[in-house]
Amino acid sequence: MAPKILLPVLAFLLLSSFSFALRGSSWQQNQCQIDRIIPHEPTQRIQSEGGYSEFWDFNKDEFQCAGVSFHRHTIKSRGMMQPAYHNSPILTYVVQGQGYYGLMISGCPETFESSQQSLEGGGGEHRFRDRHQRIGHFKKGDIIAFPAGAPHWCYNNADEDLVVVVLQDNANNANQLDQNPRSFFLAGNPGSSQEKHQRYGEEHGGSRRGQHEFGNVFQGLDVEILAEVFGVDQETARKLRSEDDSRGPIIRVEKGLQVIKPPFGEEEYGRGQGRDEQYNGGENGLEETICTAKLRENIDNPARSDIYNPRAGRYSTVNSLTLPILSFLRLSAARGVLHKNAIMAPHWCVNAHKIVYVTRGELRMQIVNHRGQAVFDDRLREGQVVVVPHNFAVVKQAGEEGAEWVSFNTNENAMINTLSGRTSALRGLPVDVIANAYQISEDEAAKLKLSRQETFIFSGSGRSYRGGRAASA
User: Fold this and answer.
1) Angle between helices 234-241 and 223-230 (to 10 degrees)
2) How confident is the model at residue 202, as a pLDDT?
3) How far is 254 from 79, CA to CA, in rounded Å?
4) Residue 427: Cβ within 10 Å count
5) How many whole angstroms separate alpha carbon 187 and alpha carbon 243?
6) 191 neighbors 47 (Cβ within 8 angstroms)
C-alpha cells in the first residue's frame, strides 16, 4: 500500500518542480544581468471619480527579471473599484483603511441571498431575490489573494481613504500570454481615463510601452449580440459598453453600496471562525476548494509575528501554510517593522525574488550580486519599491524614525538563509573552517561565529549608515 500512497505525493512534487522550472525558464530568457538596482516610483497615474491608480513601469529591468508588475490604488470614501479580472494572479496589501470585496468564480454557488424584494419594472411591480457570490471584509494589514482570471471588486466603506498596493505576477504559469500585465474590466470606460494621463508617465520617467493597459471587454462586443445573450433591449446593452462613462476605473457610490453581506467583526479574523474564514484548508488541505478558500490573512498584528525582538522590531510572513490558496497562486508575502537604527541580518532568498515596498519611514539597504558587487546601496523611502533578485544578498537598516515595509515573494513558501545570527550560515561552520577561510585566529573565529545570539533582527548600535560610510546617530 505504501508505494500507492507515495505516487500522488511524488506526482505533486514533480508538478511543483515543473511549475517552478517554468518560471525559471523565463528568468533565463531575461538573463537578469543586473549590475545596478534603483528604487522605483510610479510612472503612470489614472485619475478617477472615486480616487486614483498609480502604476510602476513594468519594463524596467528589475521588474522584467522578476516577471512582475506593481501598482497602487487610492480609493476615496464610498469609492468602488469596478469589477475586473487579470491575466495573472495578484496579491494585495492594505496599507490604510478598510472595506469589503467580492470575488466571482464561474461554477461556484451564489451563497449570499436576500429575502424577496419588490422591483418596479415596465410591466408593473414584481418580486425578486438577489443572489451573489461571497463578500469578504478587509482592513489595514491584510494580505488578499486573487487568482488569475477571477473577476473581483472592492469598496471603501470608511471615512478615510483606502490605500492598497498590488503585485501582479506576470511570469506565473497561470499566464499563457507574454509578461505584460493586462486588466479586463467588466464595466466602465477605463481606457478613456488612461488616454488622458499618458503625459504623466512620460514626465515621470516611464515609457508608453511600459504603461499598464486595460479596457471594458463589453465594448468589443456587438450591441445586438449583447441584447440577445442577456435578454435585454438594445439601450440596456449599450450601457454595458459604457462608452460615454467618464468616471474612470474607480467610481463613487453617492448613497453608499447596498449589498447582502454578513456582519463583520474582529472574530472574523480568528482561525476557523466566520463564514469567510471557516475553510482554512484543514490539516491536510483537502477540505478546501477554490469556492470556499480563505483569501485573506492579516500580517500587521504583532501577536502573530514569526520573529519578535522588543528592542529591534518584528517580522511576519504569510505563505501557503498559513494561507493555503497561495500554493495555487505560487506567491507569498512578509511584513517587516524595525525600530530606530535596528538591522535585519544579511540574508538571501533561496527560491524567490522579493519586491519590497516601504509603507513608513526610511530603510537603508544594500544588495549584493554573485560577483560581490553592491548593486544597490541607498535609502528606500516611503512609497518606493525595490526588487531584490533571487539569491542576491541583502541587508536592511531602519533610519532615525524606524521603518516598515511589505515584501511580495515569487514563491508560495519563500525561504531565506542568513549570513549572521544564531541560525546563520557562519554559525553552522566549524571554527577551524572559519579561521582558515578568513585568515583569522581561532579566538576571532569563535567570536565571529558566536557573538550574535539573535536570529534575524538586531537592535541598533546607535549609529546609522548612509552611502557606505558610518555617521553618528
Assistant:
1) 110
2) 54
3) 9
4) 17
5) 10
6) no
Question: Which of left, alpha, beta for 294 (phi over 0: left; psi -120 to 50: alpha)?
Answer: beta
H or E stretch at 296: strand 296-298
User: Distance (Å, rounded) from C-alpha 208 to C-alpha 202?
Assistant: 7
Q: Say how far apart CA 26 and CA 438 lie, in whole Å.
A: 37
Mode of pairing for the β-strands spanning 51-55 and 68-75: antiparallel
Residues of the chain with pLDDT under 70: 1-31, 113-128, 192-210, 264-288, 461-473
- Residues for the chain: how many in total? 473
User: 3-state DSSP call for residue 199?
Assistant: helix
Residue type, 31: Q
pLDDT at position 24 is: 44
| Residue listed under C-alpha cell 533582527 | 457
Condensed to tens digits (0 to 9), the pLDDT of residues 276-311 reads 443 344 444 444 578 888 999 999 999 999 999 999
| 3-state SS assignment for residue 374 | strand
Three-class SS state of 363? strand
Task: Encode pLDDT of 235-275 as tens digits.
Answer: 999 999 998 899 999 999 999 988 877 776 543 444 433 33
Closest CA to 364 of 417, 314, 402: 402
Secondary element (H or E) of residue 24? helix 2-30
Query: Is residue 364 within 8 Å of 394, Cβ to Cβ?
Result: no
Q: What is the pLDDT of residue 189?
A: 87
For cell 569563535, the residue is 446
The DSSP letter of residue 351 is S
Give the integer Cα–Cα distance in Å for 308 and 316.
Answer: 9
Q: 134 near 103, Cβ under 8 Å?
A: yes
Looking up cell 524596467 gives: 60
pTM recorded for the entire structure: 0.84
* Res 285: pLDDT: 44
Burial zone of 56 (CB within 10 Å; 0-12 exposed, 13-18 middle, 19+ buried): buried
Q: Sign (positive/negative) of CA torsion 216, 217, 220, 225?
A: negative
Nearest in space to 342 (alpha carbons), one of 288, 250, 404 = 404
φ, ψ for residue 13, nearest 5 deg: -65, -40
Give the cell for residue 28.
533565463
Burial (CB count <10 Å: 0-12, 13-18, 19+), residue 470: exposed
Grid cell digits, residue 402: 524606524
